[in-house]
Automatic annotation (TrEMBL):
The chain crosses the membrane at residues 25-47, 68-86, 92-111. It comes from Rhodovulum steppense. The keyword Transmembrane applies. This is Uncharacterized protein. Keywords: Membrane, Transmembrane, Transmembrane helix.
């Protein structure tokens, strides 16, 4: 597993925490934006885009759509746990899941600058 994928998983962990703590749904869009930036800066994804002959501008609309799907899925997994148990396992403030995802984005940026 590459460092970029590890930091992407941290971003998705923020989405899980947001669902688990019953945060508003708009948090999905914020975290999806962070995930999109992380994927846009991922060196391996850039190589894949180049091999397909796509520029970032051409790949961006589908990339945004893809990240909304993944973040929403992880959010709903966290929310499903809350629904099954009837209450959040740990009540978290709204800023914490976004902060976790921002840390993942910060790591992804650092990895992309290093490579």
């Amino acid at each position: 597993m590459s460092p970029a994928n590890i930091f992407y998983a941290i971003i998705l962990a923020g989405a899980f925490l947001a669902g688990q703590s019953e945060n508003p749904v708009w948090v999905i869009l914020v975290i999806a934006a962070l995930a999109t930036v992380a994927r846009a800066l991922d060196p391996a994804a850039a190589v894949t885009r180049a091999a397909q002959g796509k520029t970032l501008a051409k790949a961006l609309p589908m990339m945004v759509f893809n990240q909304i799907i993944w973040v929403n899925l992880v959010f709903l997994i966290g929310f499903g746990i809350v629904w099954a148990l009837g209450a959040p396992v740990v009540a978290l403030p709204l800023w914490l899941p976004i902060l976790v995802s921002a840390v993942g984005l910060g790591g992804a940026i650092a990895v992309s600058r290093k490579g």
